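Researcher: Here's the sequence for the chain we discussed earlier.
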Amino acid sequence: MSPDQKVAVQVDGRTLTLTNLTKVLYPDSGFTKAEVLDYYQRVAPVLLPHIAGRPLTLKRYPEGVNGEAFFHKHVSAHRPDWIQTATVESEGSRARTPTVTYLVVDGLPALIWAANLAGLELHVPMWRMPHVREPDLLVFDLDPGAPANVVDCCQVACELRPLLEADGLAPLAKTSGGKGLQLYAAVAGITAEQASDQAKAYAERLERSHPDLVLSRMTRKLRAGKVLIDWSQNNGSKTTIAPYSLRARQFPTVSTPVTWDEVESCTQPQDLFFTAQDTLARVEAHGDLFAPLLTT
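Model: Thanks. This is the structure I predict for it:
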């Protein structure tokens, strides 16, 4: 098949034209666009419920992970008429337009359409339409500053977990697909501002009790050897990598839900390193470890 050949396919009754299927998007592993599409098709049953109703920001890599990338917020005007969208008012003085029309992935055809744009990474807010900036999730993005790594993030997660549980929250963990870890907990009846304030308070509390390990401030010069608890991801205008999304790293890693046993027993970064194939095998064996977030 020539690199620029187009292939028409049927996905759940929708006609899609797939392009550049043999293009290598992850050069170090030879992972092709066809494999990206295959991964998203196979993981869709567990991925789609977590992004349904959430305005989606794609991070696109048309030339692969070593090429130029860009965040794609405004959904393409050249799209099938069945693609679902959501128009959201912009916030902040830096907004370029008063509103943004986002893609909303409501099923497998839309997911494959987005992936065919070389949208490797799927970023979503902590809220769903039509409840704009009314979060149903609280998120803590644990980001290690070298030489700290995901092992240190796991230590911080284990310290943070009982604080959240004491307040009636039920946190779950997933890898970032990069070097960090993220904790999620279901919430209701609060604004994004209140969620940010709550998350910041937890981060500051842990920083006071573990000053040599934990950081709640974004100041980069303070980061070395510590784990930043990034509470700012709860801002109603910010997004976080979706569960089961690919990441544009050296290898096709995935933001993968993990068990608390795995977090507690992590002793080396490889313990929580999962590629697309690893994640598919985990889903087959364990189902969706993030499913409780959908039913709370």
